[in-house]
Here is the input.
Amino acid sequence: MSRTFYIIEGSGLAYSLAKKLLLLGNRVFYVSDKKSNLEILDGLKINFSSLELIHQDPTDICWIENLDLDRKVEAMIIISEDDALNFVVSWLLKQFFKEIKVIALVNSPEDEIMFQSIEVETIVPIRWMEKLIESSLIYEDVTDFFNPYVDKLSILEISIESKDKANCKKLKDVNLPQNSIIGVLIRKNGEILVPHGETVILSGDKLIVLSLKDKVDEVVNALK
Here is the structure.
């Protein structure tokens, strides 16, 4: 099932994220005021016709107000290296499109509270690094086990909606491909479960799925 994402600003990170989303069959609009950023992503257009590059100042109120978002937009993702820019764009989007998910990169952890105050989902790289280092120190045996397989494994977070194939199904009735497993299920209310065969998957659930990388598309097709 193809979904639509907007990626706003960012360079190398935007390229990697756009490529991943496009490989999963999604449509991506990339918006930047910088021609150099657009040139970085331009190479993806050779292989992905569902990528559209937009040379535009993302803080332009008129442009935001007139965005055609009638199509299903999964998320607006703002990932510049400037927290002030990310906050302004997030705030403007929330003024005009309250129901659309807005995700913002927060480069300085102390700025996160500003984004949370306007109900924007945040990505804080330093916090991720702290958790990775902590895991490396505390669970050294576990990380040693996974390191040889890291190039073959994918860990997916998949949100279930009412129209998806897996909605209202028991886990045992979901036709997942071999070498994939739903390891964790997170309910809308924050409850975390390790699911078993009789667990019913509901709209609003987030599923953490472990899969071989060459099975990712099959996993998505089985659930979405």
